[in-house]
Every structure is written in C-alpha cells, then in structure tokens.
UniProtKB/TrEMBL annotation:
GO terms for molecular function: 2-oxoglutarate-dependent dioxygenase activity; methyltransferase activity. Residues 1-226 form the Reverse transcriptase domain. SUPFAM superfamilies: DNA/RNA polymerases (SSF56672). It comes from the Eukaryota. InterPro entries: AlkB_hom8_N (IPR015095), DNA/RNA_pol_sf (IPR043502), RT_dom (IPR000477). PROSITE patterns: RT_POL. Transmembrane segments: none annotated. Coiled coil: none annotated. This is Reverse transcriptase domain-containing protein.
C-alpha cells in the first residue's frame, strides 16, 4: 500500500503549484526548521528597526492535529485546488472507515473504525495535513503566520501600540480552528513579547475563549530557544548542558577501547549534530563568551577522540554559504527576494541595518559572506 501511496503523493505534488502556502516550511523541498526560525526572526528584527515598535509572537499548540482532520473538508479543499475528482473520491475512501487495533506481543485489542484524521506513519499524511491548512494565512499585512506542520506561530508587528490587527488575527485564527475541527490548546499556547523600546508600557494580556494566554520570557520554537530580548545565551546554555551529558557516553566508549574513527563518528552523529542544529540562525549573533562555551565542548571532544574535529566557526561558514546558495537557486523560496543581485551580477545588494541585532542575523550575514567570496 505504501508503494501506491508514493505514486499518489508524486501525482499530488505535480498537481499543486509550488507557490501554494509559501509560509508552510514542512515537508517541502529546500525547506527546514532553520528556514522557519530564520524567517520568524527576520520578520521580527526588520520591524524592530522602526520607531515605537514591538513584536508579539503567539506560539499555537494544537491537540492531536493530525487526528482531527475531517476527510470531507479535506477532499473539498483538494477539489478546490484542482485535484481530479476521482483522486478526491479515492482519498475520501482511503481516510474513512479505517479499522484500527493495538497489538502488544501476541495480544491484540478489539478493532475500532475511525472516520476522521490522517493515519500516523502514513506516506500521504504530511502533505494532506499541509494542504488541509493551506488556507490558514494572515489577513493583515502587519501579521505573519508561519507554519511547520502543526507548529504554528503568529507574529504581530505592532507600531505605536496599536494591537487591533494582531488581536483580530488571533480571533480569526480561533474561528478558523473551529471551522476546521482543529482543537486549539490554550493551556499550551504561549505568547512572547519582544519590546526593545526604552520607555516600555505594560502590555495588555491576550485572551483566547476568555482564557488568558500565558506570557513567557522564552520559548523553544522548532528546537531553538527564543528569548524576549532576542539574545542566545539561554539557547547556548541548553546546548552546552545537553552536549556535556553526551560527552559522558563518548568517554565511556573510549574506556571500552573503541577506535578514534568510531569515537569521531559518534561525536559527529550525537554531539556535533546537536551543537550545529539551526546554527545558521544564531551563531553570528553569539557573544564571545557563548562561542567560547560551545567551542570548549569541541575541544573536550577532541581530547577524548584524540583526533581533530571541525570548529563551529568553519561549520557555520560552510552552512551559511550552502543555505544562501540553495535559497538563491529556488525562486519559490519565501526569502528568495532578499538576495538582490547588483548590476554587475557578481555581488548582492547589502541590507540596510540600523541595529547590530538585524545586522548579525542570518540574511544580512549571508549576503556579506557571499560578497566576500
């Protein structure tokens, strides 16, 4: 069945335009969590360049999002997008009346039949969910709705204290969830306010269905800790803590007499992958102390493995160039337009940045790196 699902998946991908729902970063070619986080930060930092401005970021949590998709609504949306009626009918039959049971060893539970949801582990489930939510978009130019599968962030760019558009956007999102049977979990939905103004005024709380949304000083978004001051000390601290825990296993492997090759492979797979997750987003904005803390982990691993390891600076430089090149080659990427070639065709137009926060973020830094080649 999975082989046939892959055939259907390829057909759906060929039938849907690449420009559909550009701010959905999951399950798409040349998109990743680092793209989504970099976009969220760029939209925020660019707005903070303006006078009397601040950001409200709402991180929405859905309860069992994939399990609440209504097949009839899904196929109606697919038909509206232009998919063939026969395919829509097949998908409706595929998603409804599915028997499910649980097996543990040689025991199997009683079977139940499900009529809603997209099956977990199904080849088609990811793309069906993203197509189901493609119409969840911002209605006002000052608001951004970023999506990575069911991880949704609403970014309200506030100027002069006028939050009306942002609050209407949240109300509209709640109504959209009700219309599409998505259960918005208010208890796990959090709000982060980024306000760099010298004279800060108290911010009115946000309510969803008469419940106050908890305001937090930091939030872990797609694996990256974003703080209300947009610094990266907390993210660095968490990375170092986890890396030091994993160094313990590296030491144990050395005591077991593993070769340097095996130790290096373990480091690359388990520790380096942790330290470099979304590194293009945050590394250029780190303080000197934070960089030293991270590099100290690498130095410790070098002593344990008794072999040279790549520095984080070199990894960062390589990944910035690779990521920038992939965005430039992809005209459907939401941030493709930020890389504007000069008439010479050899360099790119630098971004105007008033603050070091924006200057050290990914996109301005990537342009500088490309221009220095």
């Amino acid at each position: 069945m999975k082989c046939f699902e892959r055939v259907v998946l390829a057909h759906i991908q060929d039938s849907i335009p690449d420009t559909l729902d550009p701010l959905q970063y999951a399950y798409r070619h040349n998109r990743s969590t680092s793209d989504a986080v970099a976009a969220a930060l760029h939209y925020s930092l660019s707005h903070l360049e303006n006078k009397d401005s601040y950001i409200r970021m709402l991180f929405v949590d859905y309860s069992s999002a994939f399990n609440t998709v209504i097949p009839h609504k899904l196929t109606h949306k697919l038909s509206t997008l232009g998919l063939h009626p026969t395919l829509c009918d097949w998908l409706l039959d595929f998603l409804t009346g599915r028997p499910q049971s649980v097996r543990i060893s040689n025991r199997t539970s009683a079977s139940i039949t499900t009529y809603i949801g997209t099956p977990q582990g199904c080849v088609l489930s990811p793309i069906l969910y993203t197509l189901f939510t493609h119409d969840c978009v911002a209605s006002h130019k000052d608001n951004i709705i970023l999506k990575f599968a069911d991880d949704t962030a609403v970014i309200g760019r506030i100027t002069g204290g006028d939050e009306a558009a942002y609050r209407r956007e949240v109300t509209r999102l709640v109504s959209w969830c009700d219309d599409n049977n998505l259960i918005l979990n208010t208890d796990k939905t959090k709000e982060l306010i980024v306000d760099m103004r010298k004279e800060r005024r108290p911010h009115r709380p946000l309510f969803i269905r008469e419940l106050e949304v908890e305001r937090v000083s930091s939030f872990k978004y797609l694996g990256v800790h974003i703080s209300e001051d947009l610094t990266w000390s907390l993210n660095t601290k968490q990375l170092v803590r986890k890396a030091q825990q994993r160094l313990y296993f590296l030491r144990r492997l050395r005591r077991f007499g593993m070769s340097p090759v095996i130790l290096s492979n373990f480091y690359n797979c388990v520790i380096e992958s942790l330290l470099t997750s979304c590194i293009t987003v945050w590394y250029s904005s780190l303080t000197v102390m934070d960089r030293k803390c991270l590099q100290r982990v690498v130095k410790t691993a070098e002593k344990i493995t008794n072999s040279p390891l790549h520095s984080l600076q070199n990894i960062y430089n390589h990944r910035v160039q690779r990521k920038a090149a992939s965005i430039i080659k992809d005209p459907t990427h939401p941030q493709h337009g930020l890389f504007k070639p000069l008439p010479s065709g050899r360099r790119y137009r630098s971004m105007m940045c008033k603050t070091s926060r924006l200057k050290n973020s990914f996109f301005p830094t990537a342009i500088r790196v490309l221009n220095q080649k």
